[in-house]
What does this fold into?
Amino acid sequence: MMFRTSKSEGAAVDTRQKQDNVKEEHALALQKLKSEEAYLMGEKQKLKSLKEKLEVKAKEEIELKKNNIQKLKGEITDLKATCEVLTESLNPA
It folds into this structure.
């Protein structure tokens, strides 16, 4: 036994299917966007962490260089004084 549907009933079914398809497309698009957002947030967090580590390392390197410069300046001052003493001892007045 076959049932015939009127054109208006068929159109109503088509409209519901189209609405369901639109809802599904929106849901899929939203899911993709949420997934991309989560990925990007993860990337951002990784980069922030890397930036912080690099900044700490740079500050440590700066401090090491400053300390080494001060040490070298002190050694140079001492060497100059020693050289002056030696020069004076070799050239008595």
Q: What stands out?
A: The two ends are 135 Å apart (CA to CA).
